[in-house]
Prior knowledge:
The protein is of the alpha/beta class. It contains 15 helices and 16 strands. The protein is globular and about 70 Å long.
Amino acid sequence: MAFKILSVVGARPNFIKVAAICEAIKEHNGRSNGQQIEHVLVHTGQHYDANMSDFFFNDLELPKPNLFLGVGSGSHSAQTAKVMEGFENVLLAEKPNVVIVVGDVNSTVACALVTKKTCCSGGVDGKDFIPRLAHVEAGLRSFDRTMPEEVNRIVTDAISDYLFTTEESANLNLGREGVSSDKVHFVGNVMIDTLLRHRSKAKESTILNDLQLFENTQIKPYAILTLHRPANVDDARTFSKMVESFAAVSQHMPIIFPAHPRTLKQIQEADLGDHFVDHCTNGPEPWDSRVRIRLVPPLGYLDFLQLMSHAKVVLTDSGGVQEETTILGVPCITLRETTERPVTLKPGTNILVGADPQKIIREFSRILQGERRP
Length: 374
Ligand code: UD1
Ligand code: UDP
């Protein structure tokens, strides 16, 4: 009988992390004469736009999910509850030995809770059993409980049977919280495994051409911006002040801004559209005209990886992008006061500036003047 693992994906960063797990299971099954792993992939549907979900299945050659819960958007409680209801039925039917959840999104905590509260019938010896729970990217802490992700991390870790960690700080955090060290496995970073695996394929992306970032054969200097944390975009005043600092940065080099759907909604609601050139409707402005922030839809993984690899600087509030820029050696200005990934601060590529416009501009100037080289 195969050993059954069920992995959960829901939101954009999950697809990238689970891609490495799918590869590892495929490799195990290819080389092992012993017990095979039956892998079931469940997509909760937390993210559902093609450019927040389907693109990643294509780019990363992920298997089609075996089950799709179609929960969609909602308040934290409504979304979490919908995932929990849907996932309970999945668990009762699938009876996996182990459930793998990754990262810190609402789908992660919802499926973790259900796993540890569901008794499946007919285990190995005919007995009822509760599946074991594995959390990949365990132990990360921003120590800011106003972040919904921090609550998701703490709850998920507290009930997991296997805690797979990506950096030393996570091991220390779990130790401090009383997690027994035999549950903790320091395995490295699946998001980076996926990056390294796809780096050469990303070079085939036409994104630099599409965004007219070539001059003759040279790549022009440009910055990338990604922004989606509620603390930055949900309050119109904070967001518009940040946008002013991005406008200042864009006087030095264009900013390519693949806008998350939450952020796009806020741009419309806060009436901030004048600060941006919409690349899709207007096309890029001629290169020598007023430099602006170029709004593009969320990009597929390979396009974004290629774009990130050649950027002069990345401005972001993403968790994953802080790690990816560290590996790529690209300077990263993190638009947050805290990071749950302190390992990214050590090599000097990443710096925390929060939402303060002065700090954002100051840090950008230092990078422009070559003061801060990785
Ligand atoms: C979620 C995660 C966050 C993660 C981010 C990755 C939680 C609590 N937050 O934030 O940790 O960094 O995903 O991108 O789980 N929307 C669409 N289309 C979509 C998805 C969302 O239009 O495919 C819009 C909806 O208006 C929705 C809003 O974006 O209300 C926010 O989506 P949601 O999944 O609730 O949170 P994110 O901000 O995406
Ligand atoms: N990403 C992408 N296209 C984009 C923006 C981000 O492929 O337009 C990738 C990025 O390379 C990283 C992941 O999405 O692998 C990060 O996801 P996100 O920032 O949404 O979530 P977080 O990491 O903050 O939870």
